[in-house]
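FORM 7B - TANDEM STRUCTURE REPORT

SECTION 1: FIRST PROTEIN
SEQUENCE AND TOKENS:
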Amino acid sequence: MKALYLIIPFAPLLAAIVAGLAGRRVGRVGAHSVTIFAVLLSFLCSCVVFWDVLQGNTFNGPVYTWLTMGETRLEIGFLIDPLTTLMMVVVTFVSLMVHVYTIGYMAEDPGYQRFFSYISLFTFAMLMLVMANNFLQLFFGWEAVGLVSYLLIGFWYTRESAVYANLKAFLVNRVGDFGFLLGIALILATTGTLDYVEVFDAAAAGELDTVITLTCILLFIGAMGKSAQFPLHVWLPDSMEGPTPISALIHAATMVTAGIFMVARMSPLYEMSETARSVVLVIGAITALFMGLVALTQYDIKRVVAYSTLSQLGYMTAALGASAYSAAMFHLMTHAFFKAVLFLAAGSVIIALHHEQDMRKMGALRKYMPITYWTLLIGAIASAGIPPFAGFFSKDAIIEAVHLSQTPGATFAYLCVLSCVFVTAAYTFRLVFMAFHGEPRFDVAHPPHESPKVVTVPLVLLAIPSIASGWWIGSVVFGDYFGSSIVVNPAHANIATMRQEYHGLWGYLLHGLTAAPFWLALAGIATAWYLYRVRTDLPKKIAMRFGPLYALVERKYGFDELYQWLFAGGARTIGEGFWKGGDQRTIDGLLVNGSARLVGWFSSVVSLFQSGLIYKYAVLMLSGILLGMTWFLFLAPKG
């Protein structure tokens, strides 16, 4: 099995090296063939490891010792348990679908080989992150996915907007990563180790009691950056500047899920700090509702899906704060499938409309793109939380867990996540009705057509788990699937309370049909239908009626402008101050030019005594003699 553990992350790495360094030699076909084969191999090996773990076999051990400092060993190692294998299967499957899809989407792009190299490298980085058994390797994967996302968001580097977006993502994540690094340093300073199991044992022994809240909050600041939680959410919508395949990979299965996975992995620590869990819960609830509202005001089809990702990540984060780690991971899995479908279907539309992304210039696409329409509709239903689609099971479990939570802020969080059900259904079906129904608002003389099979086959394959993956809620959420890989304090066991009321899949379905979330979802769909199919004049009137409030939401609550003024503008102001006050006035003006002027002035004074005229020298000599005689004769003290 150890050989498989090595193949899973390193096969995509080797493929990335081949496609990146030998891309011109192997050509386009060679680049996509080697990377797709590598990711396929990684996926198949992940499935084998997943099955082996289901049989009760786990692994935790080093692969390579990088550095030894006294008793502290810095190692590369793997922790293979149910939590890890779930992520391995999800990451490799979604990545495989994105790789295949990319053949069609990037067919005419001159950077074809480079893109395949990047996405294969991205897969390697995420796998190293989720397979880590220590904080050093976790941090390596954490930074690696950040670096590759920077390269991918700015893939079209000739576009100024893409360069701005990748720099924004990089800088915002530096803020989060600074907190994350401080948290890891605090753990090392307190326990003397970076190994997960040793840290958890030290925490259970009380070694972290004095710093546990600070440690958890610092680690969560890192998660806020990677998983785009308020107020470090601003980079994720701008990541849409990258090609659609990478938007799907970032939003569905890799970078943004890293923070959720990390907090779930650190459950033994978070269970020891109610304050930290409260922060996580409230931040997640705010992100879920308020980012969902922004999606209602967007017209760029990819940005609607991007804000949907922010909102769904908020659900997962709220679940973590409510100690419902299994529900958070289950929603991460179901969300990976239906969000990948939504993004890739949006990309299919963009291909058909020659890279048009404004939904106001779409309409009636279901007649021209039936496969894209039906797969996107499946993703939309799952996202809205309609049974028996996957999103219904995972989202309802989160809402109920938050409702039962005793963590401070739980009431506020419950109102947010419950309200967000209506908002989610509304913005998701607003996209469906605007893009695929009604009258065509594009040039009918050049109608779109269905995308090629390399685009539609991944859509169909992803649509299947978007329907069926939720049916495993009994074993994943309410069963003992995660075992000891997730630790929950019995006092916070909301999932255990829900387990007592779980009476099988059909019972859960029937109960869901009578619960508030289901009816709120139907109300959201009905509202979207009425506003965008029946009374299409009303959205504009509503926007005008709530002018200032609508403008605030449409401008994303002004966070972009605030950060631009406060941080970017502040940095420029400080830089200008150092430039003018420090460089020009102090260094150049006072030290460099000032010393030169002082020497010049002193020289001009001395030059008065060095004229070269004998009579001046004689006058000076006589003046000196007279002054000396005056001193000795009249001013000197008498002995």
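SECTION 2: SECOND PROTEIN
SEQUENCE AND TOKENS:
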Amino acid sequence: MLLGNGGGTFQTAQSYASAGYLTNSVSVGDFNSDGNPDLVLTSQCQDSTCKNGGVSVLLGNGNGTFQAAVSYNSGGFQADAVSVMDVNGDGKADLLVSNFCQNTTDCNNGAVSSLLGRGDGTFRGAHAYSSGGQDAYSLVAGDFNGDGNADVVVANSDGTCVLLGNGDGSFQTAIPYFPGGIFISTGDFNGDHQPDVVVANGSLSSVTALLNIVTGFRQATTTTLTSSPNPSAVNQSVLFTATVTTQFGGSPTGTVTFKAGTTTLGQGTVSNGQATLNYAFTSTGTISIVATYSGDSTFLPSSSAPLKQTVTKAVTTTTLTSSPNPVTVWANGEIHGNCHRPIRRNSNWHDHVQRWSNRAGASHTQRRRGAVQNVYADQGQAPYHRELWRGHEFPVQLRERDSSCAVNWQRILTRIIVQAA
């Protein structure tokens, strides 16, 4: 492992044990859904007995280091290449491995093995299929017939074979094409938005391109979902953006439906690969949102991974005024609150009453606190009415609470001073 410095140079190499013997290939994926890249390796032998090939997984720590390798039986002998793809549609990364031989005593056919991922960094045991030829060197995964299921194309020494996927992690019998080869890759080589295959033929000193001629091919898509802002407040507009991408180009059309569980939030039309929706939530919580692309005549449907939208209480600013002030006998005070929606719950007033006496030059202070009056707010305001006594000064404080707004506590917002008549 050589970490890049960003200027075309690299740090000193760091090595990790592969947990196998004669390690051949490496691929990258996120196997435990923590957002960190993990590694998967293939080795000709899983251990020193060399009775079967090995597949090793090194989970990434996210800082350029990796945990110790965990080894699995490759499902054949002399594992050569590995590819990462979700082959059973559960949203978890699976592994596909080419094995030079089916086992140590049978090299008449190679083997293609699938190891289904659990999503926690571990994998189920390998399930092997005949590669359709001898000496399975390498493979590529993709949807090669446009049905939305993951397929495999493997390069054998005596032929190139396609194993069509059933969508549940299993594969059909290999379909052979000629010639074979050693190394294989995929791409759209004629601009028809369908995946083709290219094979390096080894001793033939040539390369062969196999063009995809499937009729009615619908290209696979990937939908991703983002939101802004996140977190958001109650009644604050949130912009959801769904982006639909394709492997081999083209312009998807159709619609994207945005859902929170079984509740449809709305729908957007795909334009330039994106669909958007503005939505405001009326209650707090963490909501799981999924965007689903409808597909069209050329592109297959797809759904995004769930996005967690956090909705918090709205931030409030509360101010207090009184009118008239000063007063002669009694006065009315009003709270003027500013919330994202009208305050509908209780607002409790509390007061501290100070009383002065000038008898013989002495002073006397009496404090009293209690809920004076429950008032209800409408359109952001809550009136407060209280009889005041001459010569008293009322420092007033307000505590305002609402189910959709944050608690706002302000002390000594204003003083109501009562003058003599």
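SECTION 3: OBSERVATIONS ON SECOND PROTEIN
Residues 328-379, 387-421 have pLDDT under 50 and may be disordered.
The first strand starts at residue 21 and ends at 29.

SECTION 4: SIGNATURE
Preparer initials: ____
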